[in-house]
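Weekly structure sync - notes
Attendees: PM, LS, DV (DV joined late)
Agenda: review two folding runs queued last week.

Item 1: First target. Sequence and C-alpha cells pasted below for the record.
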Amino acid sequence: MKDDFKLSDCKPFVTPRDVNSNKGNFGYIGILGGCDMYSGAIKLANLSSASIRSGSGVTRLIIPKSIVSSVTPYLLEATVFPLEDKDSHIIFSHANIDKPLEKIKALAIGMGWGQSEDNEKILEYILNNYSIPVVIDADGLNTLSKMDNKILLNTKCKVILTPHLKEFERLSKISIEEIKENPIKYAEEYAKINKVILLLKGHTTIVTDGEETYCIEKGGPGMATAGSGDVLSGIIVGMLGSHEPQVKLVSACAYINGLAGEIAEEKYTDIAMKASDTIECIPEAIKVIRNS
C-alpha cells in the first residue's frame, strides 16, 4: 500500500503530554558514534539536540573516551557516556557495550563512527543480543553493508535504516541508476526481504516495511547541507523514546524534519540556513501540526 503522508497524519505523534509526566515517561535513548577523524562534535551535538527537541526524556551520547573533550563544549542537555577506545575507535567488549545501553529504550548508531574492525563486532553484538529499536545511519550503514544480511533476519531489534541513494546501493547491491528507475519498488523489496523499516532519502522520501509505504514531500534546497541527515536520525530516535517503532512514526519524523526545514529556509534563506536551524524550528513545526 503506497500513500502520500500528510500533515494530519503526524498529529497522533505530537499530542500534548500529561501534566504529571516525568522524563522517565519519554524514554532514555542512546546515540552511539564518533571517532577522532570523524568526531563531528557539532554533528553529534546536533543529533542529541534533535532527539531532545523531538521528545526524548534523556539523551545519552555514547562516544569514544578520546573525543569527549571535543564534543562536550557543544552539549548542554545531553549526557555523555565515554567508552574505552583504541586510536579513537570504540573497543568491543560485552562490558564496554552493555553498560551504556542500560535503560536505553532506543538507539541510533553509526554517525561519525568511521571504519573499524570493532564496529562490525559492536553492531553484530547489539543486533544479536538486544530487542530495542535501532536506527542505523551513516557509517553504521557502511558497516552493515559488509555484513551478512541474515543478521537482520535473526535480530530481535526493530531495525530502521536511513540511507541515501549511495548507501542504499551498497546495502542492496543494486546500482543507483537502477534504483532511480523505480525507487519505491526496490525500497519495498529490500525492506520486506530483510524485515526492516527503510527510509530512503531523496527529493521524495520513501518510508516502507515492504507492506506499508509512504511518500513524504517536505523540505527544500536549504536542507542540502552537512548534518541534515543527522538531524533526521536524531528526530527518529528521540520519538522512539516514547513511541513504538512503525512505518507511520518514521514517516511522521521525516515530515516533521522537512516541515522544520521549510520553516528554517523561510527564516534564513536556502543559501544561509544550516542543519542546526532545522533543529531550532522543530518546535514551530510541532505547533503547526498541532494547530492544523
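Item 2: Second target, run right after the first with the same settings.
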Amino acid sequence: MSQVGAKKSAAHKILVTGGGGFLGGAIVKLLVERGDHVRSFSRGFYQELASLGVEQVRGDIGDKDAVEGACKGMDLVFHVAAKAGVWGDYSEYFKTNVTGTENVIAACIKHKVPRLVHTSSPSVIFNGTDMEGVDESVPYSNKFYAHYPKTKAIAEQNVINAARDDLMTIILRPHLIWGPNDSHLVPRIIAGAKRLVMVGDGKNLVDTIYIDNAADAHILAADRLQENHKLSGNVYFISQGEPVPLWDMVNNILKAAGFAPVKRSISRKTAWVIGAMLEACYKLFNLSGEPQMTRFVAEELATAHWFDISAAKKDLGYVPRVSTKEGIRRLEKWLKNH
C-alpha cells in the first residue's frame, strides 16, 4: 500500500489527462484504490482502465472543446499528457505540450476546477552543463537543443502564471521515470542493447524516479495543495533521492532484461558532433524516424543532472518509498513475464 493510497477521505471527481500512459496509468490506479471517481482523457481506449472502472473520454489534448468537456464537473485535474521524445516537428510538440496545457488551464477556469497538478520535466532548466544538487531556483535554460524541453518550459510557465484564487496549481518535475509497464525509457534501452555506446567517462551522476514513487508524489502534491493554498504556483523536483552513475543505471536495466553491459564508449564531443551531423542530414533529406544521436541526447548522456528534493520532502511530505534496488528487482520480475 502506498503512502497516499492508505489515506481515505471523501471521494473526489478527478481527471487524469494521459490516463492511458505510463505515469498517468499509475496515478489512476492509486486514485481508484483510495475510492476516488476517476476520468481519463486520452486519444485511445484502454482495457486496463476499463477493468478498473475508470470513465474514459477520448480526444486530443490540442482540441479545446474536447478538453473542456473532459474537465467539466471535476474537483481536480492531473495534467500528465505530453509529447515526449527528442525528435519531430516543433508544431506537434507545441500543439500537445503548450496548446494542450493552455486548453487544460482554460477548461479548469471555465468549469471552476479548483486544483491542477501539472507534470513537467527537469529538462526545462537543462543548459548542457553539469547540474549537481541544484534546486528549483535555477532559471529556465535560454537555449534548447530539442523541442520537448522548450515546449515543456513554456507550458510550465503558463501553469505558474495561471495560479490564482480560484485555480490552485502545482508543478512536479520527475526525472527519468522507469519501472514495470514503462513504454518509453526501458524499451528504448532494451531496443538499443546491442548498439549502445557510452558517452563520456561514465561517472556522471543522474537522478531517476521509480514509477510508484512518481505517482505517489503527484497525489501527495494534490492533497497538500488542498490543505495549504500557499503552495499554489510552486514547482518541485521529485526523484529517488539517491543519484546514481547514469551508465550503471543503464547497465542495471540491461541486466534485468538479460543483456550484457555497455562496453564501447565515445567522448562527449564526438557524440555531439555526430548528433549535429545526423540532425542536419535528417532535416536536409527529410528522413523518417529519428537520428540515433542528437546534440541534446549527447549532452544528456554525458553530463550530471541530479536535484535537491528537500522542498518536495518538506512541503509535500514526499518520501521515495521504493528504493532503486527494489525497483530494479520488480522491473526484472516484470520483464521476465512480458
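Discussion on item 2: The two ends are 24 Å apart (CA to CA).
Action: LS to circulate a short write-up before next sync.
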